[in-house]
TrEMBL record:
It catalyses: gamma-L-glutamyl-(2S)-2-aminobutanoate + glycine + ATP = ophthalmate + ADP + phosphate + H(+); gamma-L-glutamyl-L-cysteine + glycine + ATP = glutathione + ADP + phosphate + H(+). It comes from Elysia crispata (lettuce slug). This is Glutathione synthetase. ATP binds at residues 150, 314, 372-381, 383, 406-409, 433, 458, 460, 466. Residues 210-311 form the Glutathione synthase substrate-binding domain. InterPro entries: Glutathione_synthase, Glutathione_synthase_a-hlx, Glutathione_synthase_C_euk, Glutathione_synthase_N_euk, GSH-S_sub-bd_sf, GSH_synth_subst-bd, PreATP-grasp_dom_sf. Pathway: Sulfur metabolism; glutathione biosynthesis; glutathione from L-cysteine and L-glutamate: step 2/2. It is an enzyme of class 6 (ligase). Its EC number is 6.3.2.3. Belongs to the eukaryotic GSH synthase family. Mg(2+) binds at E150, N152, E376. Keywords: ATP-binding, Glutathione biosynthesis, Ligase, Magnesium, Metal-binding, Nucleotide-binding. Gene3D superfamilies: 3.30.1490.50, 3.30.1490.80, ATP-grasp fold, B domain (3.30.470.20), Glutathione synthase, substrate-binding domain superfamily, eukaryotic (3.40.50.1760), Glutathione Synthetase, Chain A, domain 3 (1.10.1080.10).
């Protein structure tokens, strides 16, 4: 076993020494997750031993598009007619989206109590080969194109651990004698940017005694990623109080006063930062739904509010790919073209002629597509034979309305070592996904804050379809820019 990653050639003994040092550094610097739900044991978050290559123009394109994407999606979230038309068929067959939509309807009926909307977003991309006959090796930037995978509007994770992982990779490169410049390993502080956005929301709420709530699950595995953001809040303002609470806490002990101010345990709440509530299993009973409703009906600033969660659905992503949809919200042709350039092929599977055509494409060439439901967190998409099986069972059923069809991305393949429990420590063929973080604050009429605040990278073995880190499919990585 010898390393040949990024021009680094090391004997097996030295490579294993660096692995031991890297693991100890990761544990001592908080690059950790809970071993399992409810466990008191912490383990290393999975990571790549070395950073992976990314062409400078690709990362620059991803980062420079973030504010335009955030502005677009904010406008979408404030367009009730567009949301309703996009999601009407999904709501018929997807009980989870129906539940989120029901909350949204109740908020609209009661009247919006907090005009400001706070988003901590992450826009995920892959580096797609323009020429599918090329698949590996160091490539020229113009051989690759940036393609959007999804826009995350709720619980956009790993800003905390990502801020640490770059320093780990600077250590491993240094231990190998690999020199790098600041341009190759640029400063990247998404946790600090996310903290800045949450603090700005707290300031806009305008009550220095009110608290910021991190809305989390009872058995949170990713607590340390969240804590890094909390620590960065204290760095910027040590007088702000951050509390961790659950939907059940708000069901049992949350309340609204006559002015719709939100209270929990007699503490007034300025901002609710949701790191829970994005999958159906996080609402096991009506109590969790009631806790969410209490929050949404309040004047607290929600991150995200319910309409932000809806606009982040895959169905909205697919509807925006239709001709003229982006242009409805983006006046500048240059901006609209920039956004559209990152779209992969996206197709409706709704019952009807348009959906039937997409079904035929999927059945005839399932290897060219992925079927996506309205879910987050990894492990939900359908590929290859799964697509064929689903279509054979539901071709003429409304069940297919719950999914969209997306053109398969054929990403650049590199090599790296993945440090992950249960995975052999060997030089592996890998592919990567780039995520860019952004903070947006605004009302339906005004933009208050809109900034890009860092990037992350997830890497997985080539041939692995899903990409979640905590879900067990991918590892944390860092771009090495060239």
């Amino acid at each position: 076993m010898a390393s040949s990653v990024q021009g680094i050639d090391l004997p097996e003994k030295r490579l294993l020494e660096i692995l031991e040092i890297a693991n100890d550094w990761a544990l001592s610097n908080g690059i950790i997750i809970k071993d399992s739900p409810g466990s008191a044991k912490a383990v290393c978050a999975p990571y790549s031993l070395f950073p992976s290559l990314v062409p400078a123009p690709i990362l620059a394109q991803a980062k420079s598009s973030m504010t335009e994407f955030s502005r677009l999606m904010h406008k979408v979230a404030n367009d009730h007619a567009f949301l309703a038309d996009s999601l009407k068929n999904v709501i018929e067959v997807d009980p989870f989206i129906k539940g989120i939509w029901r909350i949204y309807q109740k908020v609209r009926e009661a009247g919006i109590k907090q005009p400001l909307m706070l988003g901590v977003f992450r826009n995920d991309f892959m580096m797609n080969f323009k020429d599918k006959s090329i698949s590996n090796g160091v490539v020229k930037p113009d051989q690759l194109e940036l393609k959007q995978i999804e826009f995350n509007s709720i619980a956009s994770s790993f800003g905390g651990l990502t801020q640490q992982i770059g320093n780990l990779h600077k250590l491993t490169l240094g231990l190998c004698g690999k020199k790098y410049s600041d341009k190759e390993m640029p400063e990247n502080k998404p946790a600090s940017g996310i903290a800045k956005g949450l603090l700005r929301g707290w300031e806009l709420y305008n009550n220095p005694q009110a608290v910021i709530i991190f809305l989390v699950s009872d058995n949170e595995r990713n607590v340390f990623d969240q804590r890094w953001i909390e620590f960065r809040i204290y760095d910027q303002n040590p007088n702000v109080r951050v509390l961790r609470r659950t939907f059940l806490d708000f069901h049992h002990r949350g309340s609204l006063d006559s002015e719709n101010k939100l209270f929990i345990d007699e503490e007034e709440v300025a901002v609710v930062y949701m790191r829970d509530g994005y999958t159906a299993d996080q609402y096991p009973s009506e109590k969790e739904w009631n806790g969410r409703l209490t929050i949404e009906l309040s004047s607290a600033i929600k991150c995200p509010c319910v309409q932000y969660q809806l606009m982040g659905s895959k169905k909205v992503q697919q509807e925006l790919a239709k001709p003229g949809a982006v242009e409805k919200f983006v006046a500048s042709k240059n901006s609209a073209d920039m956004l559209r350039a990152t779209f992969a092929g996206l197709y409706s599977l709704d019952l009807g002629p348009e959906g039937d055509e997409a079904v035929e494409m999927a059945v005839n060439s399932p290897e060219k597509f992925v079927m996506k439901p309205q879910r987050e967190g990894g492990g939900n998409n359908l590929y290859n034979t799964e697509i064929a099986k689903f279509m054979s069972e539901h071709k003429n059923s409304k069940e297919r309305n719950a999914y969209i069809l997306m053109e398969r991305i054929f990403p650049w393949q590199q090599q790296n070592y993945l440090v992950k429990s249960g995975v052999p420590f060997v030089l592996s063929d890998v592919v990567s996904e780039i995520g860019v973080y952004g903070v947006y604050i605004g009302s339906d009429q005004n933009e208050v804050e809109n900034f890009e605040c860092g990037h992350m990278m997830r890497t997985k073995m080539s041939g692995t379809d899903e990409g979640g880190v905590v879900a067990g499919f991918a590892v944390l990585d860092t771009p090495l820019i060239y």
